[in-house]
Structures are given as structure tokens and as C-alpha cells.
From TrEMBL:
This is arginine--tRNA ligase. It catalyses: tRNA(Arg) + L-arginine + ATP = L-arginyl-tRNA(Arg) + AMP + diphosphate. Residues 2-73 form the Arginyl tRNA synthetase N-terminal domain. Its EC number is 6.1.1.19. Keywords: Aminoacyl-tRNA synthetase, ATP-binding, Ligase, Nucleotide-binding, Protein biosynthesis. GO terms for cellular component: cytoplasm. It comes from Silvibacterium bohemicum.
Amino acid sequence: MSELYQIAPDALAIEQPPEIKFGEYALPLAFELARKLRKAPRKIAEEIVAALGPVEGFAGFEVAGAGYINARLDRGAAAKAIAVDGEIALEGAGLHSLVEHTSINPNKAAHVGHLRNAILGDTFVRLLRAAGQKVDVQNYIDNTGVQVADIVVGLTHLEKLSLGDVQALMARLALEGRRIDYYCWDLYARVSQWYEADEAEKAARKKVRLDTLHAIEHGGNDTAAIAELISTAVLRRHLETMLRLDMEYDLLPRESEILHLHFWDLAFEQLKDKGVLYYETEGKNKGCWVMQRAGRTAEPLREEEALESEAANNGQAPDEDAKVIVRSNGTVTYVGKDIAYHLWKFGLLGRDFGYRRFFTYPDHQCWISAESGEPDHPNFGGAQAIYNVIDSRQADPQANVIQALRGLGYTEQAEHYTHFSYEMVALTPRCALDLGYEVSEEDQARPYIEVSGRKGFGVKADDLIDKLIEATRAEVDQRHPELSEEERGVIAKEIAVGALRYFMLKYTRNSVIAFDFKDALSFEGETGPYIQYAVVRTRSIFRKAETTAESALARMTDVDATPYLTGEENDGIWQVWLRAAKTSLLLDQCIATAEPAYLAKHAFQLAQEFSNFYRKHHILTEADPARKQFLLATAAVAQRELIRSLGWLGISAPEVM
């Protein structure tokens, strides 16, 4: 094109035609050149196609419509390349990323909403690692926050328990096989009702809560000891719950250490020195240290406003919308502590945690932050890129952390800070009724009902997993009585986990999920089990053919695939190969957009196209040896990319279903 028109485009847009019969690629280049060349787009397209001549790997180019250039691949050559190209280019090799996800308050059992966070985060970790990045997985634990304080209030004021009594309670629950996180689920709902139950006592009860919170933050007392005991026990339960879904963590940084190791003090000095924070002397934020809220620009002041505030604020009226970082009583807000924490994440704080071993996985150790820890710990922090999986309601605090980083001059770090936001998980009215909740007629008419931990309204994560496994186990038992009980149990778990993970991943992050047992348990349509079953079909083919997928792909070098991929009657077969070839592109797309739903859709579409191919072509009874070998290779390439896609989604592919 440079030779033809002496124009070098900034970028070459490539689209996909609406139907495969029009070719694999469509180039709208002629439309972009039309204005510069003052020619009709179709005329330009004709000139470009005429000048192109033969291009290796392509069967030809043709002009379509008002000026599109459709490109047709040499399908036979492309299929051979796809068959041998099973490796992903590791473009992110060497990049050190940190993904923070799950981050459940350690005050009660995990629920279905927490599962969306954890599954999104774990899947993104898998994607980054597939791209060659070094990824640290962190699960932030707010063990000194108001939710933990509420549980302590419930134990000490509703249950009237001392520290010794709480220790005895935990021992009794363990002996009876009862779960501390479930006990706290009910207690948390009771405490929330207690705060509001008596109007005359409301202020006094809220003061109990505040005093409890301050005692926990200060540490060194029985109240803080109860909080530590309960939050640590609940945290262990959370890790056990997530392990059921094959999720693991490297580090559990806790808020208590951020407080007691004075991370904020170091951050505060940086923020003041760089002018990111300023002390407010007027208005509603008088006596606070504040910063300009992210996304705000200064507005011109009315004359009377400027005159009134000139002496105290150097001619500027107070910014009533400024973000308070340090309150007038000297306490630090959530955003302030988060700024300090993220300076540590990027290795910019000048201080580190101590570390202790906390939870042992089959192949690695999970560590927890400590004031003083073990000497032989791994290095944490100092990441080059950060992804925080936090729901969309935290958009403003996240934006203010990024604003602070920019204000401190850490612009590169701010550019590599991603708020991996997502919408909530609610319940369908039918699901709420199935769970035994009372649902008003008004709520029954709604598309979904919000989960509320304070009301004890929701689906506990472990209950959901148990119910999924129970349903899949019944199906596996019926289909495969010849297998051992242990084998059937493993398969049932693989299917249940696949169903749950895919259900959470198939929706884009900005979509509210209305959870329903019937939809999540379905094996038909766009579900995890549907994709798993496509893999099971491929395995059955290779068992009966007494060969392997790897052998079928290796022997593609001896097959001329062109006759089996040419013509509209073979478009369905070619679609399987073409879709399979896009897996690595989907990896890049998911990382660039922080959207795993694209990979989930890709896996489902590949499974659909393979199923259509499987129904139309009788592989095992094909009489032509060369065609049979090609059909086996088609099943093999589908299997390879389905297993790879499922693996990145955190879903295994069972041998049988």
C-alpha cells in the first residue's frame, strides 16, 4: 500500500465477515483511504486486490460490498499449522503482577456473592500465568473492621461471654462438628437486629459497637483477643471453602498489621510532603486532612465565597467534596489505610510485614502477615502491576487510591493499577423461596432480590457447593454404576465445580447475576457441564479408535486437508478449526480487557461447533482412511483447545460423565 499510494496507515483494522463463506477476514481499509485519496472505496479496494498478487497462506482476496476486501485463508495449510501450533506465546513473561481477590470479612460464612469475586479473581490469575506472568495471589483480611467488631459485640453483650468462654465455645463447636463460620452467620444477623431493635437504646448500643471497634484496633486487651480468635478461625474456614473450588492464595495481608506496623505513618509523610493531602481549616471538613476527590476539577468561586475564605484558605473556599483521609479526631479512613497498603504493594512504602506460615496446600504454603514473623519467608510486594477484584460499589475509594499514587508522582504505577470491578450476585425470587425465605408479593415480581448478610439472607457458599455435588452425584451414580464410589465422587465434584465456575464466569463483570439453583444445575445450554461433555465425547472417540489426540494431530502432516475443508458443505468442519485457532487470541483479549467472560463464551461456542461436527460426521465408521484421519484430527484440535480453555477457567475435564 505504501508503494501503491505512498500512504502508511497508523494501524490496519481487521474484521470478521458475518458468515464464513465470505472468508476469514474483512479489511475496511478502502473506507479509511477514501477521504485521503478522494476515490470511491470500492475502486480503491479493487486497486489494492489487483496489486496484491499471491500471498503465502492465503487462497485469495476479493472485493465485497461497497469496498470491503475479504481475505480467504488457504484452509489446508492453515489446518496443518493449527495442528502443530499448540503452544501459547508468553508475551507477559517476566512481568510481576499481584492479584487481590476474595477478601471476605472474617466474621461469618462465605456466601454466593463472595464466590463471584473469588472465581473471577482466581480465573484472572490463571490467565495471567498462562501468559507467562509471575503472579502473587493475595487475600486481604480486614480483621479489625466493624464487621468483626459486631461479632465480638454479639459474643460479649448478647451471649455474655468472656475470653475464656469464647475459647470454650469454639472447642465445643469443634467437638460437636459444628462450624464457627455458620455460628457467626446467625450471630451477625442477631447483632444487626439488636442495634436497631430498641429505639431508646439505639445510641448506647452503637456506642458499644464503636468502643469495641476501638479496643480491637488498639490491641493488647481481651476484646482484641476475642476478635483475633474468631477472625482467624473463620478465615481458616474461608480458605477451606475456596479450596473446594481449587482456589489457593500466597499471602493473607491483614489490616491489624497495617495498623500496628504503622504503615500509615510512612504514607502520611509522603502524602504531606508531595502536597497530596492538605489540612482543612474551614467548612464541614475543618480539622481533617483531605485530598481532592478523583475526577474533580476545580470550579471558579463566587466572589463572596472567595472573600469569606481568603484569610484561612489562601484565597480558596473549602472544597466541600474533598475526600477525608484523616478525620478531625485523628483516626484514618479506609482510603488512607488503602493508600498505604498499595504503596507497599508497589514496593514504595519503605517498610514490610513480618510473615508466618498459615495454611498448607498440597504444593505450596500460604503465608499470613505478622508484626514479627519467620526469617525464611518468600518476598511479597514490589509488584509491577496490580489487579484488585472488588465490587463496583468501591469504585470511588479505588479511584482515590489511584489519584493519590498520581499525586505522589507514581504515574507508571497508577497506570498499572486496575480496579477489577464487578456487579453483585442476587437471588431470584424462586431461589429465595426454595431456600425457605419469606418473599413478599412485591419481591416475587422482581427479577432479583439482593443478598444481605446483616439480615442473614443469602446462600452460604458451602451449602451451594454441597447441593451442586449432591445433584451431580445422583446423575453420575445413575450413568456409571460400574465405577467405584470414590471415582463417582471425584467426577461429581468436577462437574459441580465446573457448573458453578462457568455460571459465575459466563456473565460479563458489569452484569448483575440473579442466582438460581435450577439454572446453575442445568447441564444443557450455555453451561460448564455442556463444555465438559464435549471433551468427554472426544475422549470416547479416541478410546474406540485406539489412538490418542496427540497422535491424530501429529499425523496431520501426512494428510492433504484441502479437499475436506473446501466448499460450503465443509464450512462446519472448518469452523471448528478456525475457532480452535483463536484460543490464544482470547487469552490476550481477556487480559487486555480484564474480562474472563470472553473466554467462557469462546469455550462454549467451540463446544457447540464440535457437537455439530460430531453429529454430522461419523468419524469411527468413515471408510476413507485419509478422511478418517482428518476427522480424528478435527476432534483432536477441538479437544486440545477445549481442555486448555477449561483449564484457564479453573474447570477440569472429566474422563466420563
